[in-house]
Amino acid sequence: MLERLVITSANSKALTAQMVARAWSTLQVGTAIGTLLLLYILASFIGIFFHEEQIPLIRLLTTLLVHAVVMAAIALIVRQRKCSWSSSFGMGVRQLKTLALAPLFYLATLPLLMLALLLQQRLGIEHELQDAAKVIAQDVSWLRTLYILTAIIVAPLFEELLFRGILLPFLFKHTGPAGGIVLVSILFASMHFHLPSLAPLFLLSTMLGLVYWRTGSLWASIGTHAIFNTVSILAINTSG
Prior knowledge:
By secondary structure, the protein is an all-alpha fold.
């Protein structure tokens, strides 16, 4: 399997063609993204109906609900296209073996992530935890456990489907591989709304895009993403 990761000009064109063939139409992409944005806008007002101490739980439940609805929309579009999840995202049973490569991809990303953190320190950018990470850093509780499970399982699955599975092939078709990966990485980093994590998330997304392009399976990028979140959580607990 490792030998197949070597990139040549010939298989580079074949891999790009495979990615472009998976691209959704503008209407289909707009439907998925539009549904997500509309639900997030509606969800932003839900906090006014609850007390401050209830907000972390409500935020998590709302996020899970939004993800479930968007995933259902994605499933409907895949069915409408008369495609399988294997042909659409490389998420068939046979492609599960690419999960074994996830640790290697994560290790390949580590030097870049460390460099980004070092540059942030040199620039005087203080590393502040995201809201979800703040909950995880608190004392052990059932809510903290839910946040951890969401970060390790739900978030990688949903974000990889959205950014790499849907947006990346669409942008590959319209801007080419380099443009697609860069644009998706900018969107991925920006959508987390957390300035201190901007550079690391951009670099992570760049690697995840390369992983999906090279393996042809979203399982590989999901696994790499899950490892990144797991290690981040362990680091928060260790330092906290």
